[in-house]
Design goal:
This protein is of the alpha/beta class. It has two domains: 6-187, Leucine Aminopeptidase, subunit E, domain 1, CATH 3.40.220.10; 200-512, Zn peptidases (Aminopeptidase, 3-Layer(aba) Sandwich), CATH 3.40.630.10. 36% of the residues lie in helices and 20% in strands.
Length: 513
């Protein structure tokens, strides 16, 4: 298979006008009264080319837009990419993240080998340089990504690598930017790792190969340990939810547990936080078969589990001084003579029984065992992430994930991490009124409610397995994949959740220092 593009990130103290690169990116606002000092200096060397482009109306500075001015003998860069930042009063750190993604995407498409980023200069002292450096690095990784492992030869013509440097004329600021770039490179590359695993088809990634990937990740880390329960072990433990969903496939289910134990004194502290991710490597719906159109997208039903896998990678590489479990129940949901059926009653790992009314409501069936496992490990905080319901997509579209939970402080912490990471969430209810819909007449619970409020009733179902732990649920259906290219990214998996969860955990670690 072809290697995914390698992005090399760094910083450099240099005069922008002299910096040599295939592409140099600068940011401009749509409501600016004129060019800033930095861009004016470049424009003088370019004999007013930037100013003429703006006066002609060919570049207006709107976010998600850009224009190229070709260099000359008086500047080092072969091209200057003007990147729109939108209105100055509305900018956030995500503005610089998206602008960096736009610049990286354009660089890849134009086959640039080197890219210099001076986007942060337009923000002045509005944001901390390290935070801007991290956002630039994350955005660059995001925008440069292409999934083309199975494109033979060089059919798409892209280069194998892209060298990116953040450029600043002041050494002190470059040092601060570098701190952020180092963190952002870890998070951004972890997110792209998630995108690659999620993009791989079901004949490549199934429970056994996903478990092998988790073991490989742990072997490469001094702080990660991986345990995988096979079918026999799950039978012994009574993990009926995972076993039921995986019963129809020749690819037998796996229950994957990653544990990050930080080095040093804190390494003796047991993990108190668990991330639980749904990893249905392919979801046909089982006997409650889905319609054929777009069923190929059901390889993305593992996205929650992959987000947890990649977050554990980032946590280990960042060396966060907190103990974390990554719990990934994995199965393939396909119909056969051995599949679980509508009407079956399943005894889950918690001991609670569930009446199956629809085999396509399988995510909650494996997550409930994952949540119960986290509770038995005495985790005080549990966050699950899953492409759980089409109802969440109906409610929120493809713009943000649904966030539900039982603890206001945890909800606020995740909302803060959402704002910082640029991965948007919206708080939805999941209280007792929704839980009542999930009661069965012949078992403790049933696995679907009415047609209304499906995202909320699904979360209310999961809530029954969390005990006294603080718990939050992220329904990422709709934000897990780009169905077509955007201004900032190619189509395919988004890796949603990696930045959000890593930011949440980094904030938690910082608060404990």
């Amino acid at each position: 298979m072809k290697e995914i593009m390698d992005v090399k990130l760094g910083t450099r103290t240099a005069d922008l006008r002299e910096y040599k690169a295939d592409m140099l990116a600068v940011g401009l606002y749509c409501d600016a009264k004129g060019l800033d000092k930095l861009t004016k200096g470049l424009d003088r060397k370019l004999k007013g080319a930037i100013d003429r482009l703006i006066r002609l109306g060919d570049f207006k500075g709107k976010d998600g837009t850009g224009a190229v001015v070709y260099g000359n003998a008086k500047i080092g860069a072969k091209r200057v990419l003007l990147v729109g930042l939108g209105e100055k009063k509305k900018v956030t750190l995500d503005t610089i993240r998206k602008a960096s993604a736009y610049a990286a995407k354009q660089s890849v498409e134009m086959k640039a080998k080197t890219l210099g980023l001076a986007l942060h200069s337009a923000f002045g002292a509005r944001f901390d340089p390290a935070a801007m450096g991290q956002a630039c690095a994350e955005g660059t990784c995001f925008g440069s990504y292409r999934y083309d492992e199975f494109v033979t030869g060089n059919g798409n013509g892209r280069l194998g690598s892209l060298k990116v440097e953040l450029i600043d004329s002041y050494t002190a600021r470059t040092k601060e930017l570098k701190k952020g770039v180092l963190k952002g490179a870890i998070v951004g590359k972890a997110q792209n790792y998630a995108r690659t695993i999620a993009n791989r088809p079901a004949n490549v990634i199934y429970p056994a190969t996903l478990a092998a990937e988790a073991k490989k990740l742990a072997r490469g880390s001094s702080t990660l340990k991986c345990t995988v329960f096979d079918e026999r072990q799950m039978i012994e433990k009574g993990m009926g939810g995972v076993l039921a969903v995986g019963s129809g496939s020749e690819h037998r289910p796996k229950f994957i547990v990653l544990k990050h134990t930080p080095a040093g004194k804190t390494g003796r502290t047991e993990a108190k936080i668990a991330l639980v991710g749904k990893a249905i490597t392919f979801d046909s719906g089982g006997i409650s078969l889905k319609p054929a159109p777009n069923m190929e997208e059901m390889k993305f039903d593992k996205s929650g589990g992959i987000a947890v896998l990649a977050t554990m990678k980032a946590v280990a590489e960042l060396g966060l001084p907190i103990g974390v479990y990554g719990i990934i129940p994995s199965a393939e949901n396909v119909p056969s003579g051995t599949s679980y059926r509508p009407g079956d009653i399943i005894t889950t790992y918690s001991g609670k029984t569930v009446e199956v009314q629809n085999t396509d409501a399988e995510g909650r069936m494996i997550l409930c065992d994952g949540l119960s496992y986290a509770v038995r490990q005495k985790c005080e905080t549990v966050i699950d992430v899953a492409t759980l319901t089409g109802a969440c997509l109906v409610a929120l579209g493809r713009y943000m994930a649904g966030l539900m939970g039982n603890d206001d402080k945890l909800i606020k912490q995740l909302q803060k991490a959402s704002q910082q990471s640029g991965e948007k969430v919206w708080h939805l209810p999941s209280g007792e009124e929704y839980a009542k819909e999930m009661k069965s007449k012949i078992a403790d619970l049933k696995n679907i409610g009415s047609r209304w409020g499906g995202a909320c009733t699904a979360a209310a179902f999961l809530r029954q397995f969390i005990g006294d732990a603080k718990w939050a649920h992220l329904d990422i259906a709709g934000v897990d994949v780009f169905q077509k290219p955007t201004e900032f990214s190619a189509e395919g998996s988004t890796g949603f959740g990696v930045r959000l969860l890593t930011t949440y955990l980094a904030n938690l670690a910082a608060a404990k220092d």
